[in-house]
Amino acid sequence: MNKGMFEEDDETEEALFEEDEEISSEQWQEACWVVISAYFDEKGLVRQQLDSFDEFIQMNVQRIVEDSPPVELQSEARLRNLTYSSPLYIDITKTMTRSGEEPKETKYEKVFVGKIPIMLRSSYCMLANMSDRDLSELNECPLDPGGYFVINGSEKVLIAQEKMATNTVYVFSMKDGNRPTSTLWVNMLPRGGGGSKKSAMGPKIIAILPYIKQEIPVMIVFRALGFVSDHDILEHIIYDFEDPEMMEMVKPSLDEAFVIQEQNVALNFIGARGAKPGVTKEQRIKYAREILQKEMLPHVGISDFCETKKAYFLGYMVHRLLLAALGRRELDDRDHMGNKRLDLAGPLLAFLFRALFRNLLKEVRLTAQKYINKNGDFMLDLCVKTPLITRGLAYSLATGNWGDQKKAHQSRAGVSQVLNRLTYTATLSHLRRCNSPIGREGKLAKPRQLHNTQWGMVCPAETPEGQAVGL
Length: 471
Prior knowledge:
Blueprint: H1 10-16, H2 25-43, H3 47-60, H4 74-79, E1 85-96, E2 104-117, H5 132-137, E3 149-151, E4 154-158, E5 160-164, E6 169-173, E7 184-188, E8 197-201, E9 204-208, E10 216-217, H6 218-224, H7 230-237, H8 244-256, H9 263-271, H10 281-295, H11 307-325, E11 340-343, H12 345-373, H13 387-399, E12 416-418, H14 424-431, E13 434-435
Parallel strand pairs: 5-13
Antiparallel strand pairs: 1-2, 3-4, 4-12, 5-11, 6-7, 7-8, 8-9, 9-10
């Protein structure tokens, strides 16, 4: 989990390796430990937590004013059951447009929208870069690595959450009661969950598109993207036309879609399986275009004229499926560390902040609309309900239920935990812990076993006992 660059110690290198002299295995081992010690001396053991939170503040929150009012000390927050946080300000521009008049702009600077809990020892914490003497004077332990929050006087740590890497093509074998056990699935996981999935069912290749209730033959999807002729479609799927096995595998799919030879007919075919009944043909075609443009493979592009890029990506997905079906490429390993990502403090807080900020904008819009309906002017900064973000962030960090407070049953539990202070090693272990979202009652052994790709990434120093072992 720890990554970074380090500077070589020239003096140590000269002492260990003299010119024109063979290096023994003992010298190599000693050199390795010198480098490892130098790395951890500079970076520390919880750098991943600190960097992740720094990224959240710098990349996901628009603006935090540096000249914020004085905050209480961390030790005072612990003793008085306070939350160690920093205020968040935004700049707002209100534009009033009345009929027959010029638009009138009013700017509101430094509008307070809430407080964001600050991670100790991060770049935005007052303890950052302090000397040991200064830390001792503030009743802070110089050996405390930070990487946690103080919420209502309690120390809280965010546990890194494992997930499958998004925007990546996977080929899995999946058992389904409605299909043969030999079904191969190509799965595309976009950011935010939900997405398009391609599967090979028997000899024909079908696609499952977002908001489309029925399975669509994949060749019809290509034609809906504007690639009508069989030759154009095969150019995107089969990179070598002299490959008879692959050509033979796509032939049933081409025969199935033979009756549709125009783009509008293909769009109407897709739209009829997703739009509400009773709409006109033009509305069905428009609906299908929006699905293909904005919902299918959104990471490739959602603007106009992205059809060619999406056709190439879709062709690559089908190509990967065919390679696996022909036995030329192994199925993807769900437990491979390269196929996983860790949601640390940055992505977790960004997910929470995005939902809370959306609710804040909704409240501002409703309040402003009430004033507009009365034909009265208003102060836009008074429409901002500051407790929404403050309470939302504090609630999730305090309870560990990661999500909307009103939808607690949909929230992830156990994301935030009380920091273990039993021993120094226990604290470090808790700050570097990972959690896999797999159900604890599952009987599959593979996800629980130590995968060889975890070497150098995840430390297997400890694991829970009982049902959660290995997870």
